[in-house]
Design brief:
With about 270 residues, the protein is α/β, with parallel strands linked by helices. It has 8 helices and 9 strands. About 35% of the residues lie in helices and about 25% in strands.
Length: about 270
C-alpha cells in the first residue's frame, strides 16, 4: 500500500483533520512555475507532496497532517519577520477565524500574527435584503475580530474583496479600522477609482490578489487524492482554509508560505 493510501485510510477514521503543506517555498518545482491563480498553485503543491509522501508522515496533534517538514528553515529573528494570514471562511463563524489563527500560531511556533486578512463567505442572493443581511453578518463578525487586535494576538486586520459601499459601511461601524482591502482585479484591469480614492483618504492599503472566490479547496484536495490514490476521504466538508506568508521586514523577502486546511466530517 502506498504512503498516500495509508494516510487517507487513517483520515477516514477521524471526525476532523487538518492538512498543512509546510513551507512551499522550499520546493523549486513550484517556485519556477507561474500559476493562473492560487488554487492552481495549491493543487500543484498537494499533487507534488502526495507524490513524494514520506513513510514517516502521520497525523499529529489536533488531527494535523504536516505534508512537508520544510517548516522551520527560516534563518531570521522573530522581530525581523512579519506574518500575514489570509483566512477563507465558509460561514460567518468567528470560531473558524480563531481556529485558523491558533493552528497557524502552533505550526509556526509563535504567539502573535502581524496581520490577518479575512475573505468572507459569498452573498447567497442578489436582493437588497440579501445585501443587508450580508453586511449585518460582516459587521457582527468584525466586532469579534477587533477583540483579537485588542488582545495583541493580531496586530492589524484587513478584509478581502469588499466593494466601496461595503467598505464604507464597515469603516463607519468599526472601532478597529480595516488596514487592508485585498482586492481581486480578475475581469478588469484596475481597482475602481472611487475605491482607490476612499482607501487613500482613510489609510487603507489596496493589495491585489489572484485567489478564486469561493476558494475551491475541497475540489482541489479531492482531485489530488483521486489522481494520487486509489481512494479519497469521502463524507468530509471544508470548514476553513488559511494561507500564511512570512516576510522579512524592510527587505521584501518571502521567507515562508504555506496553506492550512480544516475538514470536518459531514453529518
Amino acid at each position: 500500500m502506498s504512503c498516500s493510501n495509508a494516510l487517507l485510510q487513517k483520515l477516514q477514521s477521524l471526525k476532523s483533520f487538518r492538512i498543512h503543506t509546510g513551507n512551499i517555498n522550499s520546493f523549486a518545482e513550484l517556485k519556477l512555475k507561474r500559476f493562473k491563480n492560487s488554487a492552481e498553485e495549491l493543487s500543484a503543491c498537494l499533487d507534488l507532496q502526495f507524490g513524494k509522501l514520506d513513510q514517516a508522515v502521520d497525523i499529529g496533534p489536533n488531527g494535523t497532517v504536516l505534508l512537508s517538514e520544510c517548516l522551520h528553515d527560516i534563518m531570521y529573528e522573530r522581530d525581523d519577520l512579519k506574518i500575514s494570514l489570509k483566512v477563507f471562511l465558509t460561514e460567518f463563524d468567528f470560531g473558524q477565524i480563531t481556529n485558523a489563527i491558533e493552528a497557524t500560531l502552533d505550526q509556526l511556533k509563535t504567539d502573535s500574527i502581524e496581520q490577518i486578512i479575512v475573505a468572507f463567505p459569498e452573498m447567497e442572493g442578489e436582493s437588497d435584503e440579501d445585501e443587508k443581511l450580508w453586511r449585518k453578518n460582516l459587521i457582527s463578525l468584525w466586532k469579534n475580530i477587533e477583540s483579537l487586535v485588542d488582545s495583541g494576538k493580531v496586530v492589524s486586520a484587513g478584509v478581502a474583496d469588499l466593494q466601496l459601499s461595503q467598505l464604507e459601511k464597515l469603516y463607519d461601524e468599526a472601532d478597529v479600522k480595516p488596514c487592508v482591502n485585498h482586492f481581486n482585479i480578475d475581469g478588469c484591469c484596475v481597482v475602481p477609482p472611487e475605491l482607490q480614492s476612499f482607501a487613500r483618504e482613510h489609510d487603507i492599503q489596496l493589495l491585489t490578489h489572484n485567489d478564486p472566490s469561493p476558494f475551491p479547496v475541497k475540489e482541489v484536495f479531492s482531485s489530488v487524492c483521486e489522481h494520487r490514490c486509489d481512494s479519497q476521504p469521502c463524507g468530509f466538508g471544508l470548514v476553513w482554509a488559511a494561507r500564511y506568508t512570512v516576510w522579512v521586514q524592510r527587505r521584501s523577502i518571502m521567507a515562508s508560505k504555506g496553506y492550512i486546511i480544516q475538514f470536518n466530517e459531514q453529518k
